[in-house]
Structures are given as C-alpha cells and as structure tokens.
Specification:
Two copies of one chain form a homodimer. Chain A is of the alpha/beta class. Chain A has a domain at 2-160 and 248-287: Bacterial extracellular solute-binding protein, family 7 (D-Maltodextrin-Binding Protein, domain 2, 3-Layer(aba) Sandwich). Helix content of chain A is 52%, strand content 14%. Chain A has helices spanning 2-9, 12-29, 54-67, 88-94, 126-135, 138-146, 186-194, 204-213, 224-230, 257-262, 265-301, 310-330, 332-354, 356-364; strands at residues 38-44, 72-77, 99-102, 151-158, 165-167, 181-183, 198-200, 218-219, 238-241, 250-256, 304-307. In chain A, strand 1, helix 3 and strand 2 (72-77) form a beta-alpha-beta unit. In chain A, helix 3 runs antiparallel to helix 11 (265-301), helix 7 crosses helix 12 and helix 12 (310-330) runs antiparallel to helix 13 (332-354). The radius of gyration of chain A is 21 Å and the shape is globular. Mean pLDDT of chain A is 91; it is low at 1-33. Chains A and B meet through helix 3, helix 5, helix 11, helix 13 and helix 14 of A and helix 3, helix 5, helix 11, helix 13 and helix 14 of B.
Chain lengths: 365, 365
C-alpha cells in the first residue's frame, strides 16, 4: 500500500516510469505474489463507456483485475478524461499511461501502414483479420511497425463490418457522388475524393448536427448499434450498405513496452490472454446488438435500407486499389504490409467462397 | 509440494474430489497465493495433438498455467490416453477429470438439445454462434442444460464453416443421393436419411479406408485443414460445399462445477477468460489453415471443388426444419432452445445480408 501512495504522490508522467522501474526490480527479485501490485492507466479514444468500444475497454480492465487477483489494477479513462483521443498513442509511447485502447488507423500520420491493422477499403472481415493477424504474419508486421515507438500492439476487439453510411438523398449512380459532402476519415475519404465526392473530417460529437443542418450531405459512423444511439436516422433517411471502407475494423490495445516488460510473466500472459478474450467478446456483442438495432431502425423508424449501386461499388473498389498502390510507392513498410495482406486476401477469397460466404448465401435465401 | 504428492498417491477418481475439497477450504481461508496449487486433468475427444482441436486444448492448458503462475496446472489427455472420447462427459460429471474439451453434439443421447451448442444443419456461422451464446441467451440455455449433470460449459473454439464432404462420384441432383452411403453423424445424418441416403457412423480413424475401399460412397469430416491431413483426397475426387450440416461448429470446455467452485475467484476468472481467448484464436487458426489447405488440395492434388446442386440444398434445408421441429415435439428443453435460436437467426439473416455477407459478395467478385 505504501508504494501505491508513493506513486500517487508523483506526477502522472513520472508515475508510469516509477511503476515500471519498481516492478522490473520486483519481477526479477521474487515470484509474483499477493504483495506485488501494479496500478496502470488505460487511456482510450472513445467517449467514456461508449457502447461496445468504451464498455469493451472497461471489461478488459475488469477481467485483468479479476484474473490477477487485484495485482494489476487498471483505471480506464475516456476521451479527454485524462488524454485527448488522438494523443493516446504518444501518451503511451512516453509512459504517461501504460496502455491505450483505440484504432490503428488513427495513427496513419505517424505510420503510413497503420490502417491495415484496423481497416482499409475493401479489406478483410473480422474473421479474416484475426486469421491474418494471428496466423498470416499480420501481427508480426504490426508489432514491427509500433516497435520504434516503444509500443506493443495487440488485437483487442472488432466492430465487425460497418455500414456504408447515412445519406440525405438517394444515391442512384456514380453521378450522384459528384460534389457530395460526406463525413469519412482515413483512406476511405481519399477514395471518396477520387470518386468526385468531398470528404469531410468531423469528430463523432459533431456529426449529428452537421447532417441535420445539411452542412454535410452524408456521413458514415459505425454500424446500427452505435448509429441508432447517435440518432442519425433523425437526420437522414437513406442507410446504405455495405461498409466498403471498413469491412471489419479491428480495435487495438497498445502497451508501453517497458511497462509490459516490467510485469512478471504471469501478468504478461494475463494481458495477452485478456486482449484475445475481449477480441472474441466484442465482435459477438456488435454482431448481436447491430442485428437488434437494424430491426429497430427499419421497423420502428422507417429507415430506407439501400445497397450501393453496382457502378458505385465497382468504381470505389478500383480507386481503393489505386490508393493502396500509390501509398506503397511512398513507404517501404506500407509496401511490405500490402504484399502480406494481398497474398493473404487472394488465398482467403476462394476459401470463404466455399465456406462462410457460400453458407450465408445458401441459408439466407 | 506435499499436497501434490498426496493427491498423486490417490486413485485418479478420488484425486479430483480431494483437490476440490482441499482447495475449497483454501479458497475460503486465504487469498490465492503462490503456495496454493491445483493439478487438474483435461480429457479431450480428439486424438492427441490433433491439428487445431487437440492443439487448441494444449494451448488452453498452457495459457492457464502461464496466467496462474503455475497455480493451476492442467494435464491434457487425448482420446483414449485416459478416458475414451465419448466418455469424457461422464468422466467430468463424476469428477474423474476436472475438465473436458469436445463438442456438445456428442451428448445428444443425454441432452436432446445439445447439438444447438455445437452445430445443427443450416444453423449459425461461428460469428453468429458467439453472438447467440454471449448476447442472445444461448450460453444461459447451455449452462441450464448441463447443470443437472454438475457441469459448467463454456465456448472454447470453433472450426468455422465445415465442408460438405468427399464424394467418389459426382452428385448432380437429388436422385444421386438415393441409397448413397455417406458417413455423417448426428442431426445431419438424420436429415440425409430422410433425403433417401444411408448415413453411416464411423470414427475418424476408419473413414479413409472405408472411403478408399468403397465401403462408403462419401464422407464428411471437418474442413480442408483436417481433411488434407487425413489424405481424403486420395480416396475420393469430388469435394462439395458448403457444409450445410455444420455451418460453424463451436467446441466446448466442460468443467466439473464442484471443482470450479473450489477455485479461488482469480483462477475462476482465468479459466473463463482463457476459454474466450481460445475461442478467438482457434477460429483464426482454422480460417488461415483451411484457406492454405484448400489451395493445396485444388492446385497440387487436382481436387474437383463442386457446389451442391440447388435442388439438393433446398431439399436438405426443408428436411432440416422438419427434423428440428419433430425433436422439439419430443423434448421441452429442445423446444425452448429452438425458439431462442430461431428468433436469433431470424434477426441475424437480414443483418448479415447488409454486413459481412454483402461485403464478401461485393469484394469477392
């Protein structure tokens, strides 16, 4: 208890370093026991307790505390409660917090290849992402990409396939995309710009008003579960699918490498295993809740569900290939990750065509 | 160490009870510490180290040992090394072993509804199974079904969507099913019989010879990864899809309830969390390895990949509904589980039609 009080007394930045240093000595000196405790901070890119994502981070912390018998306790901070969302990467790199939960594509300004570890247009579904990360070389590349920042990334959840977004007017062909102002960050936004639309970047909290006032014509957000919670159906009537820009977004746990190395081996394994458990549970939650919310949106709120027109999807897919290939020309790591990802995807398409895809098409009628 | 020696000295059946009794007292008396150790047995329905399934059970045990700092060590037994495959349920119920890893549909003779917790014809994919189990009431029903046997079940892996099987002759229509001798256990076999085929039950080890000698005309097994390892392509040329009888087979961990209750809270949480982690990792392994093996089967072994003819799938799907409904008329729990499962599936179909299914159909071309 004295060490806990001591650490509380230090500045927040120094606290992490002190924890890491103390525990490294402890870890070497004796077997992990009830007396050896760690108090860590987990900063997230989500509003506090944001459904599915923020609650997943809270459940991650709860399980680690329970699995470790309280030896590793983790305080979870929502966006801005301690660190603003887009600064959590730097906060963990510097040791200000030991862990963050977020999405890799937020860091593409630092690491061009980062979006591959979350979602890229016409990319992998959640099932494929896990297969690529765990058994297709993806996780090794991800860890290599984050190593220069002193960070260890692990898959820790997925939103599943997202929706294509909310449109105030029907989208009948590629022509209707011209000049359309749509909120879409990241590589998806780049693809949209090449197709003639005007991508807009807006934080989640500003989307509803922008869409309702007509400041933007369309927006993507997540999927039915989160979109219903934001009330986006009150601002636009047409709901398009599929979410070509995010076919299966993996969420990430990032851990300060020095802090991680300072943990005794059992707590390290608890962190790894709990991340995998949350990876499992979060996709299940999104799948179940999205299905319920979609039913509510269509049956109770009269939302018009529409597939993107085939010419729109075909053009966006062509442009996505262009965007990825040009980025590979500018960055050597991006090129290596693209190569691994493409090899994997080429192998996965014919397999899923005879497995899950064939089954869903057969069963769904 | 003395307690470990004492337990080793007892008969195997008595050991579990002794462990449970000792540890219950310990758990109440003091906080879990390095001195409190459990040695458990995990019996499985798989050949030792069987790819994906048996290796998954070994990884489960390794992680628990690592997460618990050795306080819960688990010795894994393959089929017949300690308990024969189809007796593991009884072995855990009686306390002869503390845990088993297997598949719920093996126990349909004891619990008619058990197949729902693994796979039923034209049922749920792995992603949907997890959503139903964790967030659709499925796990509560499963735990209710096993409670009278003193067992706690948890999802612990999935093989993903299986393949439709190996056929010595091409299957062109429903007429070709008449009198066809096909190895297929469980509810799938019942459906096949109603379609005019002759289902045969054979243990895995006898499949290859039966198929090669023509004692059977066709067989299902698992998917490309395991089928290639068995060499089934050497005995039959035509490989059909999709695996309508097993769209996403969940594997189970079953734990003796008294033994589980005797663990301190941190070890209980480690067991739950590690089961979820294996649930995550095993599907990823099957997805990656199946895709590789399918490529090998088609490109290197000249396997002829064929979709089941539409009339065959349509008839099998009709008959599957009949089989499930008749079983519901005979068993009250089956009827309740069917109701939960059908409600969930009806909600899931329209959701996946705009999410993963739409995305795979768009992307796969």
């Amino acid at each position: 208890m004295q060490r806990r009080d001591l650490i509380r007394g230090l500045g927040l930045g120094a606290a992490a370093a002190a924890t890491a240093a103390c525990s490294r000595r402890d870890g070497e000196a004796r077997v992990a026991g009830p007396g050896q405790r760690f108090e860590w901070k987990l900063v997230t890119t989500w509003p506090p307790n944001f459904p599915g994502l923020g609650t997943g981070a809270v459940e991650f912390a709860r399980r680690i505390e329970a699995c470790s018998g309280g030896r590793l306790s983790i305080r979870v901070f929502g966006d801005g409660e301690f660190i603003p969302a887009f600064e959590v990467f730097d906060a963990v790199a510097s040791g200000t917090a030991e862990m963050a939960h977020g999405a890799a594509y937020y860091w593409k300004g630092k690491i061009a290849a980062a979006p591959f570890f979350c979602a890229v247009p016409f990319g992998l579904t959640a099932q494929e992402m896990n297969a690529w990360l765990y058994h297709g070389g993806g996780l090794e590349l991800w860890q290599e990409a984050y190593a220069p920042f002193g960070l260890l990334p692990l898959p820790c959840g997925s939103s599943g396939c997202q929706m294509g977004g909310w449109f105030r007017r029907e989208l009948r062909s590629l022509a209707d995309l011209q000049g359309l102002k749509m909120r879409m960050p990241g590589l998806g936004g780049e693809v949209l710009a090449r197709a003639g639309a005007t991508p807009v970047t807006l934080p989640g909290s500003e989307i509803f008003t922008a869409l309702q006032t007509g400041a933007i014509d369309a927006t993507e957000w997540v999927g039915p579960y989160n979109d219903l919670a934001f009330g986006l159906h009150k601002a636009a009537k047409f709901y398009y699918y599929p979410g070509w820009h995010e076919p299966g977004s993996t969420l990430e746990l990032i851990v300060n490498r020095q802090a991680f190395d300072s943990l005794p081996a059992d707590l390290q394994e608890i962190v790894r295993t709990t991340a995998a458990a949350i990876n499992d549970r979060m996709l299940a939650e999104f799948t179940a809740r999205n299905a319920e919310a979609l039913q509510t949106l269509v049956n109770e709120h009269g939302v018009e569900l529409r597939p993107f027109p085939p010419d729109v999807l075909a053009r966006l897919q062509e442009l996505s290939v262009e965007v990825l290939q040009e980025a590979a020309g500018r960055d050597a790591l991006f090129a290596r990750v693209l190569e691994s990802w493409q090899t994997f995807r080429r192998r996965m398409d014919p397999y899923l065509a005879v497995a899950e895809r064939a089954m869903l098409n057969t069963r769904g009628g």
